[in-house]
Design brief:
This protein is α+β, with helices and mostly antiparallel strands and 226 residues long. It is built from five helices and nine strands; from the N terminus they run H-E-H-E-H-E-E-E-E-H-E-H-E-E.
Length: 226
Amino acid sequence: MRNLPAILVLILAINAWSQDKPQAQLVDEFGPQQCDEFLARVDNLMIQLGTNPSANALVVFGPKFGSAEKINRFRHLIEMEFKRSTFSANRLRITQTKDSTAPGGKFWLLPDGATVPVVDPVKWPDETIDISRPFLFGTEQMDDVCPTFYLDDFAEFLRSHSNLHGKIVIHAYLQRATTEDAVKWLSDLEKLRVPRKRLRVFLAKPSNWERVDFWIVPRRNSRKKH
């Protein structure tokens, strides 16, 4: 038992180290959410980040939140909210777990050096895009309380792919409104450094479902030949 004092010292040192190590702080947990409820929780998470400038945010979605499609939609929603805020995107991490005992979702604050509290993490689905064919990049719905489209992302995608064009299709109730919207969208994209010559606007027939569809279209000579 001569080594007992040394063992006790070692145990005390380990306990002191574990107490000093930064711990993840649970900010919120919830079940399935509607969009407005979820955005209110995101606002609170940002307030917590503002009062803890050295911490990062961790969002964990569980199976009880809803379908994979819904989880992915709300994932993009919170990413867009952060892009609209003053917080760096590096301060946000979003993951999901296959742990069936987990609640729908959790918001954590992670101080530097804290262990990530995620059990059975799941990889996000591959979102590789085939840019050789036209595809719908996103949709802006009029008066949408749960927006998932961010114009800056559309502009950034076009700036990083010089062989692609943007196609904007405006669906509105009145023809006059569509013409005004066309001028607005073109002006906003030019401010985001997208040349006017790479943009096309189409006014759809008047519709009760008012929305704007943003398409990515390859140049004809850049499409794959079969």
